[in-house]
Amino acid sequence: MLKFILRRSLLMIPQLILLSLIIFMLSKAMPGDAVTGAFMSNPNVSQEQVEKIREKLGLNDPWYEQYGRWIGKAVQGDFGQSYVHKQPVTSLLAGRIENTVLLSLFTAIVIYLLAIPLGIVAGRWTDTWADKMIVTYNYFAFATPLFIFALLMLFLFSFILGWFPIGGSGNIRIDPGSWEYIVDRAKHLFLPVMSGALIGTYGTIQYLRNDIIDQKIKDYVKTARSKGVPEGKVYTRHILRNSLLPIAAFLGYEITGLISGSIFIESIYSYPGLGQLFLQSISQRDFTVVTALVMVSGAAVIIGTLLSDIILSIVDPRIRIE
Amino acid sequence: MTNPVIDEKKLIAQEKLNNPSLLRTIWREIMHDKMALGSLILFTIIVLSAYISPLFVDQTALTRVNFLNVWKPPSLDNWVGTDDGGRDVFGQLMIGTRNSLTIGVAVTLIAGLIGLTYGLLSGYYGGATDNVMMRILEFLMVLPSLMFIIVFVTIVPNYNVFTFILIMSIFAWFGKARLIRSRALQERELDYINASKTLGTPSFKIMFFEMFPNLSSLVIVNMTLTLANNIGIETGLTFLGFGLPAGTPSLGTLIAFARNPDIIKNKWWVWLPAALLILVMMLCINYIGQAVKRASDARQRLA
Predict the structure, then answer these.
(1) B286 to chain A: which residues are within 8 Å by CB?
(2) Contact at 8 Å (CB) between B43 and B292?
(3) How close, in Å, is residue A43 to chain B by CA atoms?
(4) Burial letters B55-92, b for 16+ CB under 10 A, else e
(5) Going by CATH, does the domain composed of A89-319 fall within 1.10.10.10?
C-alpha cells in the first residue's frame, strides 16, 4: 500500500517539471517581459537604461538559468509582480482563490447530492418511468454546453424573474460575519453553483446507473437474496458498497472540469474568482498573472488525479498490482 | 443425392442480408427511433439552410452598418431583429451556424486523424512503445486545456481561422487516442494481424489498411459524439472572445452580446436565438450519435 502511494507520488514529479517547462516556454513566447511592462510606457527611461535593467535582472541569461530561477521562486510561492495591479502575483491570487474554491466546493457538493440518489433510483428501478425521466434529464445534462446553460439560467432567474442578483460575489457594504452577510453571499453563489451542478451530474449518474445494473446480476447479490436479506438491504449493504466507492475516488478528476467550468461561470456571473482573473489578465496582457494561474491550475489537476489514484487504490486493491 | 451447385451470387446476397453494412444498420436504427429520426430531419434542415441561404443573402448588406435600423425588435423585415449596427440578426445567425459547423467538422476530422494515428501506433506496437506513449498521453490529459487554448490564441502570431482550428485540434484528440489504443491492443492479438505479419506486410499497411477498417465503427461513433462537443467548445471560446477572429462571425459572436446586462434583458433577440439554436443542434447531434452508437453495437440495437 505504502509502496504504491510512494511510487504514484514519484510519478507526479516529472509531470510537474514537464508542466512547468511547457508553461515557462509559453511565457517566454508571450509578448513583453518584466521590463517592458514596467518601464516601456515611461518616456524618461532610455533604451540603454532598459537594456541595463534587463541585464541586471538576468533576462539575457540562457533560458535554463532563467527557468531555474523562476521555478526556484515559484516553489517558494513567489510568482513575480503583476504589472497591471502593481502588486505581487501571489497576494493577488490569494485574494481571489477563496471565491473560486467556495464556488467549486459547493458545485461538487450539489453534484453529488443530486447525482448519487438519482443514479441509485435509476439503477435500482430500471425501465420504470422514474428511470426514463432520469435518463432523459441526464441526456440533456450531457448535451447542453455549460456557457449556454449558465446564460439561460442568468437570463431567466436574474433578469426575467429577478429572484437573484445579476452578478458579483456579495455586497461589500454588509458587515462580514453577520447573518445578513452569509445570506447575501449565498444568494450570489446560488445561481453559479446551480448552473455548474445541474449539468455536471452526467458522469456520476451514468456511472452509478450502469454499475448498479451490472452488479444486480452478480453472484454475491443472488447469495444475499437467497439467504433472505430484505431487498432494501441488498442495495444499501451489498450493492452500494461496491458501486459507491469508486465515485468517491473520481473526486480528483472532477477538478479538471471544475477549473475549466469556473472560467465560463465566473465570466458570465462576473464572479470575482481565479477564472475571471485569468480572462482579465490575458486581455490586459498581464502575463505574469496568466503564467502563475496556468501553473497553479495545472498543479491542482495533477495533485487531484494523484489523490484519486490513491483513494482508488485503497478502495480497490486490484489496481495496486500494476 | 445431387451435387449441390453453389450459386456464389446468391450466397453473397444472403451474406449481405445477414450482415448489413454499418451505414444500413445506422439507417435502420434511426428509422426505428422516432427521436433520432426527428433529430436527423431537424438537423438536416438546419445544415441545409445554413449552407444554402448565404448564397441568396447579400453578404455585403449583412455587414453594412445602418444606424437608422439599430436594435430593432423582430419584425417582418428582420425576422429576429437587428443588432448594434442595424445588421440583420437572422442572416448572421445563418452565417454563424455555417462557420461554427464547418469549424466543428474540421476540428473533429483533424483531431480524429491525430488520435487515430497515435492510438493505432501505441496499440499496434504495444510493449515499451505503448508504455511511453501512454505516459505522455496521461500527462497531456491532465493539462488544463481550456486555459492553454486561450493562451495559444492570444500569443500566436498572425492569428486566423486556420490557426484557430489547429490550436483547437491539438487539444481535442486525447480521449480518442486512448479509446482507439485500447481497441487496437485487443485487435493486435487476433489471427489476421499475425497472418499479415508472417506474410511480411509492412506495419504501416497493417495498421491503416487492415486494423483500421475493423475499428472504423468505433471511430465513426466517437466522431459523431465529439462533433457536438467541438461545436460547443468553439462557440464557448468565441463567446469569451478567444475564438474566431473578428470578421468571421460564429454563433458565439452573437451570444457574446449577452455579456452586456442591458442587451441580455432588453435586446434578447440578438443572443437568445443563437443560444437556443446551439442547444437544438447539440441535442440533435447527440440523438443521432446515440443511434449510431447503438447501431455499432449489436447488443444495444433497438431495430
Answers:
(1) 139, 142-143
(2) no
(3) 26
(4) eeeeeeebeeeeeebeebeeeeebebbbbeebbbbbbb
(5) no
Domain ranges of chain A: 89-319
Q: Is B260 domain-assigned?
A: yes
Q: Taking a C-beta distance cutoff of 8 angstroms, is the pair B76, B206 a contact?
A: no
Using an 8 Å CB-CB cutoff, list chain B residues near A15.
139, 142
Give the model confidence (pLDDT) of B169-208 as tens digits. 999 999 899 999 998 988 888 899 889 989 988 988 998 8
Domain count, chain B: 1
To the nearest 10°, the Cα dihedral for B294, B295, B299, B303? 100
Interface test with B, best of A22, A136, A148 (most B CBs within 10 A): A148
* B148 contact residues in A (CB cutoff 8 A): 294
Contacts of B175 in chain A (CB under 8 A): none
Q: Is A10 on the interface with B (CB under 8 A)?
A: no
Q: Which residues pair with B82 in a beta bridge?
A: B88
> Is B82 inside a domain boundary?
no
Confirm whether B146 is domain-assigned.
yes
Q: How many residues make up chain B in this entry?
A: 303
Contact A147 B239 (CB under 8 A): yes
A283 touches B at CB < 8 Å: yes
CA-to-CA distance for A204 and A181, rounded, in angstroms? 33
Domain of residue B124, CATH code: 1.10.3720.10
Separation between Cα atoms, residue A219 and residue A227, nearest integer Å: 12
Mark yes or no for CB contact A144/B261 under 8 Å. no
With respect to residue B182, please indicate whether it lies within any of the assigned structural domains: yes
Pick from B144, B242, B286: CB nearest A260? B144
- Note down pLDDT in tens along chain A; length 322 residues: 778 888 888 888 888 888 899 988 888 877 766 566 566 566 666 777 777 777 776 677 777 888 888 888 888 878 877 777 778 888 888 888 888 888 998 999 999 999 999 999 998 888 889 999 999 999 899 889 999 999 999 888 888 888 888 777 777 677 777 777 788 888 888 889 999 899 888 888 988 898 888 888 888 888 888 998 888 888 888 888 888 877 876 777 777 778 888 889 998 888 888 888 998 888 887 888 888 899 888 888 888 888 888 887 777 776 665 4
Q: Judge contact between A289 and A172, C-beta under 8 A.
A: no
Contact A26 B265 (CB under 8 A): no
Residues of A in contact with B143 (CB under 8 A): 19, 298, 301
Between A20-24, B72-76, B100-104, B163-167, the lowest mean confidence (pLDDT) is in B72-76
Over range B254-279, report the average pLDDT.
Answer: 84
Tell me the C-alpha distance between A318 and B14, whole Å: 47
Structural domain of B119: 25-72+90-302
Task: ipTM value, please give it.
Answer: 0.85
Residue A81 DSSP SS3: strand
Of A19, A26, A159, the CB nearest to B264: A159
Amino acid in the structure at residue B69: N
Pairwise CB contact (< 8 Å): B139 & A18: yes
Tell me the whole-structure pTM to 2 decimals: 0.85
Q: Position A77: which residue type?
A: G
Nearest CA in chain B to A29: B155
User: How confident is the model at residue B96, as a pLDDT?
Assistant: 87
